[in-house]
From TrEMBL:
SUPFAM superfamilies: Pectin lyase-like. It comes from Xanthomonas translucens pv. translucens DSM 18974. This is Pectate lyase domain-containing protein. It is found in: Secreted. Keywords: Carbohydrate metabolism, Lyase, Polysaccharide degradation, Secreted. InterPro entries: Pec_lyase, Pectin_lyas_fold, Pectin_lyase_fold/virulence, PEL.
Amino acid sequence: MQAFACREIPPEGNSSGEPSNIWIDHSTLFASLSKCAGDASFDGGIDMKKDAHHVTVSYNDVHDHQKVALNGYSDTKNAAARTTYHHNRFESVESRLPPQRRGLSYIYNNDFNTVLTSGINVRMGAVVLIEANDFENAKNPVIARDSSEIGYWDLINNYIRSGIA
């Protein structure tokens, strides 16, 4: 999927169930953060579920959204393996940038600005390389929570600027 805009994304809007070799590129995804606060219908901006693998999310502009992305839909199932997020801008978002359950991810050269709850949530044995990202006004930029098992990450040359970290 390339060069599309999606406003007020419907439930599970851009959800990849079990496909492989997906590329989401140069697109704009947004809602109204005040409108979607606490509303499950604004869940799932970019979700990789079940056995989705080899997914790249690049050069996108995502803003004013509650739960941005998801890699792996439960702690008991296999998760999105081998996902890459690069050169995206996430601004005025609540959380899930992404949560990574199991699998491998490379998250590099992204701009995270005004993240209200949590950023990259690595858990259930996931392994993530987080490199050269810019976090500004981001609460919990990188964490491991909400699951019984933590994940593992390597932070390389990330920049955390002022704000709610």
